[in-house]
Structure formats: structure tokens, C-alpha cells
Design brief:
The complex is a heterodimer of chains A (about 110) and B (about 110).
Chain A: E1 5-7, E2 10-13, E3 19-24, E4 31-37, E5 44-50, E6 53-56, E7 65-68, E8 75-79, E9 88-95, E10 103-104, E11 108-112
Parallel strand pairs in A: 2-11
Antiparallel strand pairs in A: 1-3, 3-8, 4-5, 4-9, 5-6, 7-8, 9-10, 9-11
Chain B: E1 9-13, E2 18-23, E3 31-38, E4 45-50, E5 55-56, E6 61-64, E7 70-75, E8 84-92, E9 105-110
Parallel strand pairs in B: 1-9
Antiparallel strand pairs in B: 2-7, 3-4, 3-8, 5-6, 6-7, 8-9
The chains are: A mainly beta (about 110), B mainly beta (about 110).
Chain lengths: ~110, ~110
């Protein structure tokens, strides 16, 4: 497809489980962003990749959160030992870089029980 | 990046123009004004952006005051599908610079 895709769309995890969320950016997009959106709030930045390099991870809330983009295309956000406060929608966005707008995927809704 | 202030909610009659205000009194000279919207259960969608001149595209118009301390997003003929949360963001034009969304304005278009 032409847009950003994310999988799974919905994920339910028991507290303490590890989860992996996938993002397929628009082909050829250099920049990739992850955001976290709590219920009723706007998206909040987690981390940024330029190609395979993770240039900014200042928004990751704890060391349980880890993101990678090994070949500069698909990215995975991993959350270890999930907690209830991790429940949110996780959004991925890509951009062709430079001065262009970000295109967002539909998000993955994570619910931690 | 500068902070923005938006009303939490607004209503608009279907077919009328929707005018969504945004204050960004601390904006600096190299910061652009962006507007995104988020329809329920979808990712944010880009609408328009500008620096100091008014801008128009197929979705909306952006009016920025001369002092750049505020702006208005105009949806000329609102439809029910325009019901969404609208985010006004000011941001330096730089690769890798993330967006700070805030809580936005929840626009409801009324039939």
C-alpha cells in the first residue's frame, strides 16, 4: 500500500509480558518516528530514526522501551515487562526527510491487563 | 518549540465555514505553524503548514497574523467527516524534529 502500516492493530498483554509492535513506513522514507498516545491526549514523541540510525530516543519513558530499524525500513518498538501504564495507542510516522510533513500509520492499541 | 493554546472544543454547522483559532505568542522567527487532525481511531493527518504568508490547499486555508502570534485554520464548507481533533503545532523546520501535539480542539460538525 501507499501509506504507513502498523501491526498488530490491537494487542492485549498481561502485565509482565513482552510485546513487539511493527511499523512499515512509506517506501523510501528516510525518517521514522514513534509516538505514544494516551486516552484523551495528543501523541507524545518517543524516538526518531534517520535510516537505520536512532538519532533521538529522549522520549522513551523507561529502559523497558526499545526500538530498532536495522535495515533502515521496517521498525519495531519493543516493550519489555509491560505495565498497566503502558496501555496506549502507539503511532508510527514516516517522512521523506528534510522539510516534509510526517505521515502517520493507524496505530497499535496496546492494552495491558 | 513554542507552546500553542487552542480552545478544547468547538461546534460548527454542516456546510458552514469552521474557523479554528490557535495562539502561539512565543513563536520564533524560524518556527512554522502546522495543522494536523485526528479522526477517531485513526492516526493524525497532515492538513497544512505555513511560515508567515497565508496558505491554501484543497483541504483548508491557514491565516497567520502579521505578528505571527496567532493563526486560524479555516475549513470552508465543513462536512460531517470533518469531525475530528485538530492540532496546531509550531515547529522548527529541521529533519528529525518531532511534533508536540498538545490536546488540540475537538471539532464537532452538526447536521
Amino acid at each position: 500500500g501507499a501509506g504507513v502500516s502498523q501491526s498488530p492493530r490491537y494487542k492485549v498483554a498481561k502485565r509482565g509480558q513482552d510485546v513487539a509492535l511493527r511499523c512499515d513506513p512509506i517506501s523510501g522514507h528516510v525518517s521514522l518516528f514513534w509516538y505514544q498516545q494516551a486516552l484523551g491526549q495528543g501523541p507524545e514523541f518517543l524516538t526518531y530514526f534517520q535510516n537505520e540510525a536512532q538519532l533521538d530516543k529522549s522520549g522513551l519513558p523507561s529502559d523497558r522501551f526499545f526500538a530498532e530499524r536495522p535495515e533502515g525500513s521496517v521498525s519495531t518498538l519493543k516493550i519489555q515487562r509491560t505495565q498497566q501504564e503502558d496501555s496506549a495507542v502507539y503511532l508510527c510516522a514516516s517522512s521523506s526527510g528534510g522539510y516534509n510533513e510526517q505521515f502517520f500509520g493507524p496505530g497499535t492499541r496496546l492494552t495491558v491487563l | 518549540d513554542a507552546k500553542t493554546t487552542q480552545p478544547p472544543s468547538m461546534d460548527c454547522a454542516e456546510g458552514r465555514a469552521a474557523n479554528l483559532p490557535c495562539n502561539h505568542s512565543t513563536i520564533s522567527g524560524n518556527e512554522y505553524v502546522y495543522w494536523y487532525r485526528q479522526i477517531h481511531s485513526q492516526g493524525p493527518q497532515y492538513i497544512i503548514h505555513g511560515l508567515k504568508n497565508n496558505e491554501t490547499n484543497e483541504m483548508a486555508s491557514l491565516i497567520i497574523t502579521e505578528d505571527r502570534k496567532s493563526s486560524t485554520l479555516i475549513l470552508p464548507h465543513a462536512t460531517l467527516r470533518d469531525t475530528a481533533v485538530y492540532y496546531c503545532i509550531v515547529r522548527v523546520f529541521r529533519m528529525g524534529n518531532q511534533f508536540y501535539f498538545g490536546t488540540g480542539t475537538s471539532l464537532t460538525v452538526i447536521p
